[in-house]
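Below is how a single chain appears once it has passed through the pipeline. First comes the sequence as given, then the structure the pipeline wrote out for it. We keep one example in the README because the format questions we get most often are answered faster by looking than by reading.
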Amino acid sequence: MESAIEWRRADTAAAAPAGPCTSAGDVLAALLDSVEGGELHIRPLRALLESGRFARFNEVGLALRRAFRDPAQRDYFIARMKPHLQLVIGVLPSGIQRHGMLPPEPSAPAPDALRLEQVSDAELRQWLVDDGSLIYGEFQRYELANYFDAIAPHLRPGGEMIDLGSGLGKVVMSAALALPFERCTGVELLGYRHAMALERRARLLALSQQLLAALPEQAQQPEAPLALPVGGAATLRHLLELDARIELREQNMFEADVSRASLVFIYSTCFAPLMDALAAKLARELPEGCLVSCTTFALSHPAFRLLQHFPANTLAWTGVFLYQRVAVPEGAALPPPAALYAPDPDEWEVRARAECAAYDAA
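Resulting structure:
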């Protein structure tokens, strides 16, 4: 379905008032403008990579990186990678490249250093999944505004929005401000990201209290009208109850309770190997009528009816899909598991060897 929306192409000047806030709308604009992006956040590498979940990440990753860098091991490196190409974002895993999160090591590794030959296929697969999960991506501010415009016609006041893989909380906090949800919940697996999101939430709430307290007395009435950015009417309670309306959880998305959701948001560009399992979970647990949006990769399950597809470079830099949870006829056949990103192995090898040659020449 083609959309008549005129998409924003870049961030625009702040809509927040230059002077003191004199109305609920002024406060809302200032709060939206204050929500922080997270693409350039500093990752606590040592604490992260020494944590329980990633305790072996360094060891396996260094073995893979040594094989990539050693011309004598290139054929073996390429052979080991080929069965797992659907797990890699791009040509080579991010972690083994110069900008990756693996630590430097001496040119001559320790005699007892793990070799790629000692890494099982299951371990390598898990390492590639973990490497992808460490990549951080989010909508730019203007893309998020486009997204809100796109979904607004499908929303009803109330309900719960859930962001699976909520990172530093940008989408959750922005949605709580701009959209008419009763509650917005973020679910994030990585502890350091969850901690940073809590800090940002605290700053947002502190600013909200400060701005609301400074409003003229006549503008502080809970039932004072408030126009939301995407259309629709609310009252000042939308902001007065912000603390109760934003919840952030440190949790595996597969363990999250989504049974009361009215919108599930998934920035799934790095979730290719998880999409089938996510679709199955959501099909089991979501109420009928719930909206689901995801990026880059479609949901292949009969429980989800596609409402709109926004191709790459329209709403955002990547494609965005909007679905609705529908009833599945009894006995309906489920599609086989899909390899959502699986480049041709021979074409991949050509590109991988070019990357290797570029590394050697640098």
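The longest strand covers residues 304-310.

See the next section for the split statistics.
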